[in-house]
Design goal:
It is a single chain. This protein is of the alpha+beta class. The protein has a single domain, classed as SH3 type barrels, CATH 2.30.30.220. It is built from two helices and seven strands, in the order αβαββββββ. The protein has helices at 12-34, 58-63, and strands at residues 43-48, 67-72, 77-81, 85-92, 95-102, 106-111, 116-119. The strands form two sheets. It has a four-stranded antiparallel β-sheet, with helices on one face. The chain has a three-stranded antiparallel β-sheet with strand order 3-4-5, with helices on one face. A hairpin with a 2-residue loop joins β4 (85-92) and β5 (95-102). The chain starts with 11 loop residues before the first helix and ends in a 38-residue tail after the last strand.
Length: 157
């Protein structure tokens, strides 16, 4: 008898990751269709800024060269949900910005209102996410236009 698990010729991990990314797409489509977030729901979406298909303003790319997290809560506009990506308008330090984020670029999705979180492996051979510092609470937003937070407190160790 052999104690090793055979290598699968079916990429189950990739299939499951793609299915879970579909959850993000369906949730975004729902809030788009309903014209906003219900109740206290809000989302933190972490994504790899250099993943194929990501489009963010240059000043955000310079500030977040590997990964950033956006908050979808009160102030967003032009949410468009497509099969392989979504686009959204957000304000960063009171500067309006348009972002295009493919679902394959997403590495984390959190709805803290209901303690729901998904974490994804990077796609397209990007390698593991950068090392995360020891767990610290996310910084308090400096103003209503601040839409970037850290997901560290929601990550499972």
């Amino acid at each position: 008898m052999n104690d090793t698990t055979p290598d699968s010729l079916i990429p189950y991990d990739d299939i499951v990751q793609d299915a879970l990314r579909g959850v993000v797409s369906r949730v975004l489509q729902r809030i788009s269709d309903e014209g906003g977030l219900p109740g206290g729901h809000h989302f933190y979406i972490a994504f790899r800024t250099r993943a194929p298909g990501v489009s963010i303003p240059k000043h955000l790319m310079e500030r977040y060269p590997d990964e950033m997290t956006i908050v979808i809560q009160h102030r967003y506009w032009d949410l468009i949900v497509a099969d392989d990506h979504f686009s959204i308008g957000l304000s960063f330090n009171q500067m309006p910005s348009s972002l295009v984020i493919p679902y394959d670029a997403i590495v984390g999705f959190v709805d803290p209102a209901v303690n729901f979180a998904l974490q994804f492996a990077p796609k397209d051979g990007e390698g593991p996410p950068p090392e995360t510092p020891p767990e610290t609470p996310p910084p308090e937003p400096q103003d209503e236009g601040s839409n970037v937070v850290t997901l560290d407190r929601f990550r499972r160790k």
